[in-house]
Amino acid sequence: MPKLRIGLTQRVEVVESYGERRDCLDQEWTRLLEEMGFIPVPLPNSTNDPIGLVSESSLDGFILTGGNDLSHLENPSNAAPERDRFEKEILSFCAQEKVPVLGVCRGLQMMVTQSGGTLDRIEGHIATRHTIHSNTDDQGWIPDRDEVNSFHGWGIRPQGLGNDFITLATCQDGTVEAVRHKIVPQW
Fold first, then answer.
1. What CA–CA distance (Å, rounded) separates 122 from 46?
2. Which residues, 6+ apart, have CB-to-CB distance to 60 below 8 Å?
3. If you average pLDDT over residues 113-121, what whole number do you get?
4. Rounded to whole angstroms, how far apart are CA atoms 157 and 178?
5. Is the pTM of this model over 0.85?
């Protein structure tokens, strides 16, 4: 059976000494996906034709990774409008074509806001670790964890989740940490 090809979005980092905006991805993503039997495919943010790129790449799924605040937020940190545009196009493509998407940190925030949900500024989630708790029995792959890392200043409160998602896990402060879509297919 052929390995599944998974597209990975990348954070944007500004390297002022070179006058460059660089797409970058933690190398741990490659290690993790290869260990799981997937082929990781990093995706560029600045393509002129996002839909053409993703449809011609024959990808089996997508991971919207972390990093960069969403550009529409008040005083965003490391905003990357080109990434916002690219990820919105991916989400539209995936909804139309019924392709699975996993959102991690910023990726989850993009998925929720794209579906009409809202984010709030939250305290105690930047450069820390905290416990998450499973909120449902229907997805056994979300165990209670003693600690997960956290690097975000924006979060999803239960009332900001919108109607398209079911909460799978929360942090001890009640903010949403993991969701699944009510309709879109899963891996």
1. 30
2. 4, 5, 6, 99, 100
3. 94
4. 12
5. yes
Nearest-10 crossing angle of helices 81-97, 106-114: 60
Exposed / middle / buried, residue 63 (Cβ in 10 Å: 0-12, 13-18, 19+): buried
Cα–Cα dist 64/17, whole Å: 28
Q: How far apart are CA 88 and CA 62, in angstroms?
A: 12
Rounded Cα–Cα distance for residues 135 and 176 (Å):
10
pLDDT value, residue 23: 98
Contacts of 84 (CB under 8 A, 6+ apart): 70, 71, 72, 110
The CA distance from 140 to 6, in Å, is 22
Element (H, E) at 53: helix 50-56
How do residues 151-160 score in pLDDT, each as one tens digit? 888 999 999 9
Torsion of CA 163, 165, 166, 171, to 10 degrees: -110
In eight-state DSSP terms, residue 70 is -
Instruction: Locate 111 and state its tokens.
Output: 């998925």
Closest alpha carbon to 131 in 66, 67, 177, 65: 177
